[in-house]
Amino acid sequence: MGKPVPQLLRYGLVGVVTNLALYCFYLLIAYLGIEPKKAMTISYVAGVFIGFVGHRKWTFMHKGTLLGSGARYFIAHFFGYLINFLILLIFVDKLGYSHQWVQAAAIIVVAGFLFVTFRYFVFPKVEGSAGGNE
């Protein structure tokens, strides 16, 4: 499965680069008038596709099937998206906080959830496999 600390560092690097670019994109499209939850949805979907390649190949060095890991990846992101959406709904729509700060915090919360989910569900190592995952 790989050592958790190096994986976490690689996950963080891929995540910081991807999320910084996507957060700037989110701010731009929100500035242009797209409602915050719609702007988050657009940037989230873009991040899902970008992140799959980086995390599968580099973060977790996954050697399993593309179809299996891809399906699990989208399931994980469905729940990540749901968490992000609910954070915006509660803290922006219901409690009136600034969407810029709430979305920045939501990125961190969702990233933690996704690291654990990727490590143990999406890109797991199957015991007894010859040096690879799945």
Protein described:
The chain is mainly α. The protein is 78% helix and 0% strand. The protein has 4 helices and no strands. Helix 2 runs antiparallel to helix 3 and helix 3 runs antiparallel to helix 4. The protein is elongated, with a radius of gyration of 16 Å.
Helices and strands, with pairings:
Layout: H1 4-31, H2 36-59, H3 66-94, H4 99-122
Helix pairs in contact: 1-2, 1-4, 2-3, 3-4
Q: How would you classify the helix and strand content by structural class? A: mainly alpha
Mean pLDDT: 90
Unreliable runs = none
Which geometry do the CA atoms define?
A: elongated
Roughly what fraction of the amino acids lie in strands? under 5%
Series of secondary-structure elements, N-terminal to C-terminal:
HHHH
Helix content: over 70%
The multimeric state of the shown protein is: single chain
Gyration radius (Cα, Å) is 16 Å
Query: What is the count of helical runs?
Result: 4
Distance between the termini: 10 Å
Number of distinct beta strands: 0
